[in-house]
Design goal:
Blueprint lengths: L1 E4 H15 L3 E5 L15 H5 L4 E3 L4 H13 L3 E6 L9 H8 L2 H4 L9 E6 L24 E4 L3 H13 L4 E6 L6 E4 L13 E4 L4 E5 L3 H10 L5 E5 L2 E3 L3 H11 L2 E8 L5 H11 L9 E5 L8 H7 L3 H14 L12
Parallel strand pairs: 2-3, 2-4, 4-5, 5-7, 6-7, 10-11, 10-13, 13-14
Antiparallel strand pairs: 1-8, 6-12, 9-11
Helix pairs in contact: 1-6, 3-4, 7-11
Length: 335
């Protein structure tokens, strides 16, 4: 077992997929000659050639449309969006065209397309380059959405996404790219889309997170006075209702930890589903730990305050467990 950077797990997944399947191609701005803006495609051009590793013009609408056409015609494009915000001009091609292709063609056509994008805050990139924006994709029929949390899940989710016959969006928290961790490379490893993982067992509350918030959740659970079960949701759409429901049935309490504003976070769907379908198993009302409904600050100190920290999460979870009443977030006035 060796230590690798999370960005190297992306590269390993792409390289292995391209070796295994000649129909896999990589497209995006600066992914070929420059090796990607975050160096996650470094060396792919030399290994697989310019016909399969393609530098595109700075037009997300154009190369997303080209990728949809290529997928329908038998290729498996992996499209890189440098920052997830850049996909805004290409949402029509993804959500209106690619996601509906199977339905509109009565199953005759599929779109085996993957969109990878860096996402999330924590590096001082400002409000236009620090969002998760999972709500742009979540709930779109025909489209799957997953978020990576470490090197292992990055490799497993990306390999599974590339092999999926329908379009998949993979959000990669860019703050994790430079994280090094123990990793045992297995080219056969896959994480099925739609399957969550219990990364720490517990009895007092279920704490669900994804992406960079998973490590925050684990640190918070380690310092809590309660015995907290931590779930890495991994796939936000469709999310793993069975694993979450079974966990809540054991613990009786549900907390979601989201790197999303309260008004648009994925926890709203999780909390409402559990409250409606498993109300009798709950000892307390479900609680959401989210970002405030405000743009991501540029300042390092303000950004750190804006994001949920491990001590803050511990405080929130402990308050819920001790009182069975959801505490107010720091950004809401008690009045």
């Amino acid at each position: 077992m060796a230590k690798i950077w999370v960005r190297q797990a992306v590269l390993k997944a792409l390289d292995d997929a391209m070796k295994d399947d000649p129909t896999v191609i990589v497209m995006g701005e600066d992914v070929a000659v420059a090796g990607g803006p975050f160096k996650v495609t470094e060396g792919l051009l030399a290994s697989h050639g310019a016909n399969r590793v393609i530098d595109t013009p700075i037009s997300e609408m154009a190369f997303m449309g080209a990728a949809v056409g290529a997928a329908v015609c038998g290729l498996k494009p992996v499209v890189e969006m440098m920052f997830i915000e850049f996909i805004g001009v290409a949402l029509d091609q993804l959500t209106t065209q690619a996601a509906t292709m199977r339905y509109l063609s009565r199953g005759l056509l599929t779109t085996p397309l993957v969109v990878r994008a860096s996402a999330g805050a924590g590096q001082g990139f400002g409000c236009q380059h620090s969002q998760m924006l999972d709500h742009w994709f979540r709930g779109t029929p025909g489209l799957k959405l997953a978020v990576t949390s470490n090197a292992r899940t990055t490799y497993g989710l990306l390999r599974a996404a590339i092999e999926d016959p329908d379009p998949v969006v993979i959000l990669e928290p860019r703050i994790l790219y430079s994280e090094r961790e123990d990793y045992e490379h297995d080219p056969d490893y896959r994480i099925p889309l739609g399957q969550a993982e219990i990364v720490k067992s517990g009895t007092d509350a279920t704490l669900i997170a994804c992406g960079a918030m998973v490590r925050v959740a684990l640190e918070a659970a380690a310092n809590s006075n309660a015995d907290i079960e931590v779930i890495d949701l991994l796939t936000l759409w469709p999310w793993d209702r069975k694993t979450v429901a079974e966990s809540v049935a054991r613990t009786g309490r549900l907390v979601t930890l989201e790197e999303s504003p309260a008004g648009s976070g994925w926890g709203g769907d999780v909390v409402s589903t559990i409250a409606v379908e498993h109300f009798g198993k709950l000892k307390a009302a479900p609680h959401r730990i989210t970002l405030p409904d405000a743009p991501v600050p540029y300042s390092g100190a303000l950004e750190a305050r804006y994001l949920p920290s491990a001590p803050y999460v511990t405080e929130q979870v402990d308050a819920l467990v001790s009182s069975n009443k959801p505490p107010l977030p720091w950004w809401r006035n008690a009045a």
